[in-house]
Amino acid sequence: MTNLILRLALPSPLRRLFDYRAPPGVPASALQPGTRLRVPFGRREVVGVLVETAPHSDVPEDKLKAALQLLDSRPLLPPALFRLCLWTAQYYQHSLGDTLSWALPVLLRQGEPAEVRQEQVWTQVPGASLDDPRLSRAPRQREALRTLAQHPQGVPHSLLGKLELNRDSLELLRDKGLVQVSVRARTVKPHHGGWLAQAELPLNAEQSAATEAVRASFGGFRPFLLAGVTGSGKTEVYLQLIRQTLEAGKQALVLIPEINLGPQTLDRFARRFNARIALLHSGLNDRERLDAWLAARDGDAEIVIGTRSALFTPLKNPGLIIVDEEHDASYKQQEGLRYHARDLALMRARQENLPILLGSATPSLESLHNAATGRYALLKLTQRAGGAQAPRFLRLDVKSLPLDSGISGPLQQAMRQTLEAGQQVLVFLNRRGFAPTLFCQDCGWISQCPRCDARMTVHQRHHELRCHHCGHAERTPHNCPKCNHVDLRPLGTGTERAEERLNTLFPDYPVLRIDRDSTARKGAMEQLFTTINKGEPCVLVGTQMLAKGHHFPRVTLVAILDADGGLFSADFRAPERMAQMIVQVAGRAGRADQPGRVIIQSQLADHPLLVQLTEQGYFAFAEQALAERRAAGLPPFSHLALLRAEAHRPGQAEGFLDLACVEAEALLEELQVAGGIELLGPVPAPMERRAGRYRAQLLLQGNSRAPLHRLLHAWLPRLEQLPDSRAVRWSLDVDPIDLF
Ligand code: ADP
Ligand code: ZN
Ligand code: ZN
């Protein structure tokens, strides 16, 4: 026996490794970093990942337990990806064990073998006959044999249920020697004429230049920002680069935002290539996820497409990473390990020596800044592909106009005109439900959520008030709960109300609502799209679900009912988000031969950012917005980390943060990194109470990243030691994108 100590990352929030002795009988050479082991942990058994071995441990000999079992004969992850996980845990100040839990498929965390499942296949034994006398009194077995006889290739175990084949009957048939079960060998790669299943479009000059630039960087790390207006053919650039990646014998990883994971996007990839595509998204079951992950790791899938967490998919032969709609907020995980998949994709590309292409019509200010400073190569597509024209903008000042369920008179006219011309209208309103508040005319009561500092939204169709922050719901009262009068009025407009009003305004045209409520039913979204694609005049009203990735060739008028939230908000990122939203929604208009119009209703129609955006476009807006960020010392000109805390007792979260603040100040002295780091707070969160808890936050702002991270690294272990650190729920968000 060796006295080798294994240092493991375990699924625990604690930011440390755990020491074990080697499992009995396992040679030291088999214990490679990156392999999984089953170990005793408290009263449970858990699966950990070996990070390193050491000759001795600080844990006393008699306390040191032995690992139970080695689960892998080789490291689970390729070295580069394992290093990325280590880096991720460090950077986001998160426990390594928990980081690996986010990065690995559930079944692997549970100890499932990391091998492609050898599937059992049931086949009829040659010569077996339905007339076998042993079956004369066994109708079910006879039926099962008949079904198998119809499948000469055999029936895989997973399909037994679908074919109504009963396992017991098959076992009995096997005992009689009429049926056999075998393990199907892994399918051999099909030979095919080429990677393309469909002809490529001839690229225009800008597309060619972009494609050529990235191709020239194959084999080395280089980040590119593909800034292409909506409909400029970014996807075609991706597709042609993927083809070139496949031709080079490599795999491509494509990250897409959650909302783009529609059949439309995926079809485009699937139809183009004779290649295996592994899809990784939240809709998969655990087995499907593991199979896709293994196919990517073993090189059986040449193309990997997925949402945020697909970033952690191992690739045997990585050649290219693409991040589509790189500005999209869904790349940032907002719980547990608060990573940004785009930022990690860059780190991954660097570690694996790959080109990476970030694409968007509305790049994040961070990425534009990186392009401006030369860290990213900027590739521009300025024209819509296929000849469609850019939409025209009109800012409609509604300061002194009466709004009818949020819709002004001039807007109604424009809509009527469009519908009468046989075209479609898209009405965008980023608020679901009927109205954001219920209000008593008599005493001023408003529909406050009992668990949050927020108002409950009126959902008329379900006669409910719902809190969109904690999920609390109650029946809409008939009388005011405070003064008992019946003068309750919904205030403001949500999609449900807009839909109702549009139905009365335009009774001759269908009004289709598209939001989380109307598409909750399975297949509802497809049904709506089928109607839209018929091309008949209609009105689409919906939330950001409408804004992204879709082609609505017959939409020629886009109406944005309320753009002002982004101009009033306290969040410094709000104008950026508003601009991205407007441009993305506008991008749905006039994508085919008819030119499109965009009407933006605003109380602040002369706001400089709005003027710049609509008259000079997103890039002019972004330049202006970046100048403002620079003047205010905000990201990307500084770096942030946000410590959030919440507790049941008022003041408790702030108490914890006060102590945290004291620790941070002490550390700034000790580490002598004081220069350029500011502690802002603690302050109550903008929504102080949510779901019954009181919340507060402490913001750290640093001029440069390294000292800030040095502080965080020393700070976190101290926070774990604070007296309230278990009573208070707290978390650190490095590079937060929401400041609440
Ligand atoms: P984006 O991803 O930038 O929104 P798409 O790649 O979806 O743009 O392209 C928009 C439309 O233009 C699609 O219908 C696409 O088929 C078409 N298109 C793209 N590139 C070309 C090209 N080079 N020639 C003709 N049509 C093109
Ligand atoms: Zn009242
Ligand atoms: Zn609530």
Automatic annotation (TrEMBL):
This is Replication restart protein PriA. Binds 2 zinc ions per subunit. CDD domains: DEXHc_priA, SF2_C_priA. Zn(2+) 1 binds at C440, C443, C480, C483. Initiates the restart of stalled replication forks, which reloads the replicative helicase on sites other than the origin of replication. Recognizes and binds to abandoned replication forks and remodels them to uncover a helicase loading site. Promotes assembly of the primosome at these replication forks. Residues 215-381 form the Helicase ATP-binding domain. Its EC number is 5.6.2.4. GO terms for molecular function: 3'-5' DNA helicase activity; ATP binding; ATP hydrolysis activity; DNA binding; zinc ion binding. One of its GO terms (cellular component) is primosome complex. Residues 457-632 form the Helicase C-terminal domain. One of its GO terms (biological process) is DNA replication initiation. Belongs to the helicase family. PriA subfamily. Component of the replication restart primosome. Zn(2+) 2 binds at C449, C452, C467, C470. The lineage of its organism: Bacteria, Pseudomonadati, Pseudomonadota, Gammaproteobacteria, Pseudomonadales. It comes from Pseudomonas flexibilis. InterPro entries: DEAD/DEAH_box_helicase_dom, Helicase_ATP-bd, Helicase_C-like, P-loop_NTPase, PriA, PriA_3primeBD, PriA_3primeBD_sf, PriA_C. It is an enzyme of class 5 (isomerase). SMART domains: DEXDc (SM00487), HELICc (SM00490). Its cofactor is Zn(2+). It catalyses: Couples ATP hydrolysis with the unwinding of duplex DNA by translocating in the 3'-5' direction; ATP + H2O = ADP + phosphate + H(+). Keywords: ATP-binding, DNA replication, DNA-binding, Helicase, Hydrolase, Isomerase, Metal-binding, Nucleotide-binding, Primosome, Zinc.
